[in-house]
């Protein structure tokens, strides 16, 4: 049997007998028994009793309760109310009929606000139903499984599972199970209590309340939002009514409505003003919830996202509720004490929809994202027109990061497989000047346009405004393709090292960053790929990986580099040699240099000998080359197991040996400033922008998307102080960290690192 064979009631007043039945408890009766009692109930509605069972009772006893003490419930209402733990709370919310009816209209995928721990968190409904089962009850309490979104991720208590059963999937601590009393839709008007239930036909059509739709009147295409569905018709809140006026409502036959927004053909203007006055209607009729827009406030433009559209408080104009990028608003999503959406305080602003314009920073996107970009000749003319303006914009300092870089629509806008280039350029130039020389060095005339594009269209806007449009990256890709380095630079994904080598070596002829000494010969390169012939490391640091790789290949540094770009050991993009790699915030390269004084690893005096055999011994630490002074080397190699070792003499400058004065040995160190990571062929980057442990930011050029095939990517930069927390842990603590349980984006840094970028604090400004 199912719950449809039963009728449900809520006790609204506590009966005198039995005394343990409380107001707010839910009872049920078999429908066949109720039908037999129907005549008695009809004759004496005030005194008739029904033999009902108490929902949730551990016994199977029935109780005779007066009908006048109970109110009838639908099975769906009973499921929602039964999820509330207290009888008194259940009765209170039963009397809040509007909230109960709103909850009945919630569906999977609905954006909602959920109350949790005193906070109002944003999320999307991923599951509706019970999470507990009982043997006696025919129904269980129905709850909402919600996946938290945006900044509220990580504030939940589940990954979508409860008591070892998975009901939906999300990141750990980004899911919440909540009763309907704590959940409300982001757009209240679309789920108002008066909304009729969907018919089977409308369900089949796939329309839902709140959907943006296209409808047709007099063969004209118009747009609007579904208010409710009933039978064969749809009530729509219109962007323009049939007279061409803004706002209003219209009821349209179901077969005249299409889900989504079909582009309309241009229509004749219906205005009272002179015909030469432009029609501004098209500026906003295609805007909808989650559109990125700009508005003019005073003498400047402000940018934000539409979170609500409607006509509040009896106003006739269609209004838009915006969540602004900056604290330029007036509230947290409320107006006149009524809440329409939730956002941080001072970020909400309510304006007329006609005052909103599509965000001009993202108008480079098109239906064919890889082709319909400005022509190369046009964009090069723009750059050449301002070629004399070779101004220098310094890197973004730690103090400026929050103001310039942090937020949505920040960083470099991804476009058509450009993430490898976006992440590389952001890493190199946002907060570091180590390779700024390539922006200003003299170059061949045919390569000058590429240098100008890099400086004027990418680096300078990134550092001054915190944002680079996707069209400028496409322009750079078009220029590289025009030079013949690859016929697919504008369409296909490349490796970051391939792009950097083309730019630094083939285009700008930058001196090689890396000079390696092996067998008396010097090799030059721009990046160094770490190779290991045998793996004795389980949870390596970058320092250990570099040392072991140099030892394996018998390499030394001919000189200290100003910038060191390291590629992590991998088997292609997909297969990693290590599950986790610990970033080394400083890279000590003293022992990797082929010349210069070095310290004995045991006593700290001037080292004279190096032993490659000792490097392999498990007795010694996995970090650091094994170099000794003469005395310590004799002692170490006096052990029977090491007598066969053959230490080699270090190359020490003669002037250093000739001096009788004691010398203080200074160690050469490089500092980490960026990390590129890859997961499922998508590159992102981490930037270490300051000296503090929590001075980390994370950049994703394609963090979100507006629209589909005709839409565009939304880049995002956000702080990730959790990285510093993990870096302060011991090796043992890090080894015990389960990647999927790591907070924020830390897992991507430790588990998906592809390329590490180091710079010399003393040399990066001059080389």
TrEMBL record:
Residues 410-761 form the USP domain. Its EC number is 3.4.19.12. One of its GO terms (biological process) is innate immune response. Residues 369-388 have a biased composition (Basic and acidic residues). It catalyses: Thiol-dependent hydrolysis of ester, thioester, amide, peptide and isopeptide bonds formed by the C-terminal Gly of ubiquitin (a 76-residue protein attached to proteins as an intracellular targeting signal). It is a peripheral membrane protein. It comes from the Eukaryota. Residues 134-179 form the CAP-Gly domain. InterPro entries: CAP-Gly_dom_sf, CAP-Gly_domain, Papain-like_cys_pep_sf, Peptidase_C19_UCH, USP, USP_CS. Transmembrane segments: none annotated. It holds the Pfam family UCH. Residues 363-391 are annotated as: Disordered. GO terms for cellular component: centrosome; microtubule; perinuclear region of cytoplasm; plasma membrane; spindle. Keywords: Cell membrane, Cell projection, Cytoplasm, Hydrolase, Immunity, Innate immunity, Membrane, Metal-binding, Microtubule, Phosphoprotein, Protease, Thiol protease, Ubl conjugation, Ubl conjugation pathway, Wnt signaling pathway, Zinc. It is found in: Cell membrane; Cytoplasm, Cytoskeleton, Cilium basal body; Cytoplasm, Cytoskeleton, Microtubule organizing center, Centrosome; Cytoplasm, Cytoskeleton, Spindle. This is Ubiquitin carboxyl-terminal hydrolase CYLD. It comes from Pagothenia borchgrevinki. The lineage of its organism: Eukaryota, Metazoa, Chordata, Craniata, Vertebrata.
């Amino acid at each position: 049997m199912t719950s449809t064979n039963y009728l449900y009631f809520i006790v609204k007043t506590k009966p005198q007998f039995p005394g343990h039945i409380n107001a707010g408890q839910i009872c049920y009766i078999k429908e066949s028994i109720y039908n037999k009692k129907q005549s008695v109930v009809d004759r004496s509605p005030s005194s008739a009793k029904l033999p009902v069972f108490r929902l949730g009772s551990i016994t199977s006893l029935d109780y005779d309760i007066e009908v006048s003490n109970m109110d009838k419930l639908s099975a769906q209402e009973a499921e929602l109310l039964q999820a509330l733990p207290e009888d008194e709370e259940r009765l209170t919310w039963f009397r809040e009929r509007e909230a109960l009816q709103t909850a009945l209209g919630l569906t999977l995928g609905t954006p909602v606000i959920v109350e949790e721990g005193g906070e109002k968190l944003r999320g999307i409904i991923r599951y509706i139903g019970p999470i507990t089962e009982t043997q006696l009850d025919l129904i269980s309490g129905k709850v909402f499984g919600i996946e938290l979104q945006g900044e509220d991720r990580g504030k939940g208590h589940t990954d979508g599972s409860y008591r070892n059963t998975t009901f939906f999937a999300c990141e750990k601590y980004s899911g919440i199970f909540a009763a309907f009393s704590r959940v409300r839709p982001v757009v209240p008007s679309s789920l108002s209590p008066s909304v009729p239930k969907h018919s089977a036909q409308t369900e089949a059509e796939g329309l839902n309340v709140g959907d943006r739709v296209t409808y047709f009147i007099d063969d004209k295409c118009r747009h609007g939002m579904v208010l409710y569905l009933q039978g064969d018709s749809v009530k729509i809140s219109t962007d323009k009514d049939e007279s061409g006026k803004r706002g209003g409502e219209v009821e349209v036959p179901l077969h005249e409505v299409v889900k989504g927004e079909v582009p309309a053909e241009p229509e004749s203007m219906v205005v009272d003003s002179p015909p030469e006055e432009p029609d501004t209607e098209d500026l906003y009729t295609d805007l909808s919830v989650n559109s990125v827009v700009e508005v003019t406030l005073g003498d400047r433009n402000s940018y934000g996202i539409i979170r609500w559209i409607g006509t509040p408080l009896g106003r006739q104009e269609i209004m838009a509720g915006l969540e602004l990028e900056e604290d330029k608003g007036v509230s947290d999503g409320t107006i006149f004490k009524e809440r329409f959406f939730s956002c941080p305080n001072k970020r909400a602003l309510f304006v007329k929809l006609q005052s909103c314009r599509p965000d001009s920073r993202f108008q480079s996107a098109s239906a064919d994202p890889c082709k319909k970009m400005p022509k190369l000749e046009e964009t090069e003319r723009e750059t050449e027109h301002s070629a004399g303006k070779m101004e220098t914009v310094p890197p973004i300092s730690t103090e400026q990061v929050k103001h310039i870089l942090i937020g949505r629509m920040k960083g470099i806008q991804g476009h058509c497989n450009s993430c490898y280039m976006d992440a590389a350029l952001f890493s190199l130039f946002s907060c570091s000047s180590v390779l700024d020389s390539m922006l200003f060095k003299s170059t061949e005339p045919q390569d000058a346009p590429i240098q100008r594009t890099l400086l004027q269209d990418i680096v300078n806007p990134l550092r001054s405004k915190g944002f680079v449009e996707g069209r400028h990256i496409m322009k750079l890709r078009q220029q590289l393709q025009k030079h013949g380095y690859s016929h697919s630079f504008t369409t296909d994904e490349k490796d970051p090292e391939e792009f950097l080598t083309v730019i630094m070596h083939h285009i700008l002829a930058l001196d090689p960053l890396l000079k390696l000494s092996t067998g008396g010969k010097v090799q030059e390169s721009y990046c160094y790929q770490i190779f290991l012939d045998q793996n004795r490391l389980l949870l390596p640091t970058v320092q250990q990986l570099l040392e072991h790789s140099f030892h394996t290949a018998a390499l030394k540094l001919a000189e200290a580099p100003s910038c060191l770009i390291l590629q992590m050991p991998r088997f292609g993009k997909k297969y990693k040699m290590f599950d986790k790699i610990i970033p080394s915030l400083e890279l000590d390269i003293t022992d990797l240099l082929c010349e210069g004084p070095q310290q004995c690893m045991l006593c700290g005096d001037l080292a004279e000998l190096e032993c490659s055999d000792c490097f392999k011994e498990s007795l010694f630490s996995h970090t650091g080359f094994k170099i000794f002074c003469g005395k310590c080397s004799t002692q170490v190699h006096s052990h029977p197991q090491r007598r066969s070792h053959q230490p080699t003499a270090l190359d020490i400058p003669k002037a250093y040996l000739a001096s009788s004065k004691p010398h203080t040995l200074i160690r050469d160190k490089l500092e980490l400033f960026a990390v590129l990571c890859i997961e499922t062929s998508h590159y992102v980057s981490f930037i270490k922008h300051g000296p503090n442990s929590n001075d980390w930011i994370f950049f994703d050029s394609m963090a979100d998307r507006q629209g589909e095939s005709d839409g565009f990517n939304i880049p995002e930069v956000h702080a990730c102080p959790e990285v510093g927390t993990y870096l302060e842990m011991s090796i043992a603590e890090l080894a015990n960290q389960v990647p999927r349980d790591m907070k924020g984006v830390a897992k991507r840094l430790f588990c998906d690192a592809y390329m590490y970028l180091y710079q010399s604090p003393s040399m990066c400004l001059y080389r």
